[in-house]
Each structure stands twice: as structure tokens, then as C-alpha cells.
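Quick start: what a row looks like.
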Amino acid sequence: MADLKLGVNIDHVATIRQARYRSNNNAEPDLLFFVNEAIRGGADSITAHLREDRRHIQDEDILLLRKNLNVPLNFEIANVKEIVDFAIKIKPEFICLVPEKREELTTEGGINVICQEEDLTVSIKQLQEAGILISLFVDPDIDQVMSAAKCGADMVELHTGTYANALDSSKIDSELQRLIRAAEVAHNNGLQVNAGHGITTANLETLFRVPYLTELNVGHHLISRSLEMGLREAVSRFKSQMLGYKNNLLD
């Protein structure tokens, strides 16, 4: 069985840059430097979210990554024509369609596939015809997972934020059960199962109870830890901890 993969989200490197620099050849931090550090630490893919409000990642960042990455690019976007057309033009390996609200600090939950099934089906078909594999970022809700399969998605990324933010053991267990069931339903309907949002070294091993996981996408935690030890080391340590998932399944 293959090891659990790690996608490193580098949005918040750009967040720091955009706090001071909007358009400057000397802008720092250098996004590509940190991307390469993540890859040297063991990142299997790089995730970047081009938001409509361009609050962190910019169009030119995506073009830079597409030109220079030697690992897959997981391009997070909303189902918005302008950005979908841009994605078709650059042809990343993966796209994860996510919801967006202007007032949110970060993505707060999964996309409501059920309510957008018709529009999502059209976009997914267009993107797949360009040779791109498509994931939908969904809450661990069976109906949403089933709707993702109906839309023709290749993958789902299960939103782990509610699990990550749970404070007591009963709530943690309840959210784990939702994730477990959603992963089983996704797998049984031919969808690859990924997961992301709020995953840290502290809550990772409990998440190993969720079956069929292929890839985790982690951003804020790794960027935060990089302030202590550098991004290469932060990614390397996290990847080492992730090896326990395969071992857990073999027990």
C-alpha cells in the first residue's frame, strides 16, 4: 500500500508578502524559495488557492509555479468562469473546487455540491477535457459526497476543520465518525479520498482512523512551524509522522 501523500499549501507565504508588497521586484518572502524548501522536505504536491479577491496568491504566482514545479500543482479555485478559464489555460495536474466568501478569514467549510450540482457538472467536464483531475472540497456529509460522485469528480477532499476544532472527546469522536463514513462512501463510489483543513501534528494520529486516505493538504500549521525550524524541517517531520497511517492500516 502506498504511503499517505502530503500536499503543502503555500498560500500564507504569499499572505506575509502581500501584507507589505503589492507589486515590487524585491518583494519578500520569495514564494518559489519556500515551495522548493517544502519539496526538499518531502512535499508530494504544492497547493495554492487563487481567490477572487487575490488576498494572497496572485495570477503570476500560479504561472511561476506552473513553470517551475517538479511536483504536481493542486490549484484551488472557486467555480467562477474567469478563474476556471485561467485554469484551463495553464492545465495544472489537479484542481480542487472550493467555496469562497469575501468576509471569511479562510475557507470555512465545504462546497455545497447539492445546490450547485448542475453548474459544477459543467465546469468539471470542461476541466477534465483539458486533462485535469478534479476534486471537490466537501464537508463529511454523505449526501454531499454522493452529489460529488454524481457531478463526475475524480476526488473529494474531506473538510477536517470541524474535527480539528473540536474541544472535547465526544465531539472529536462524533466528527471522526462522520469522516470515516464519508470516506467509505466516497471510496465505494470510485472517488479518491483526500482530506484537509486544520490538520496539525497534535490531531494527525487520531485522524488515522479514517480509511482510504490518499493525500492530506496542510498549510497554516506547516507555515507556522516553519517560523521555528524552517519549512523543510517542518515538512520533513510531518511526513515522518504521516508514515504511521500506513502502519496503522497494517495492524
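That is the whole record. The first strand starts at residue 5 and ends at 9. The mean pLDDT is 93.
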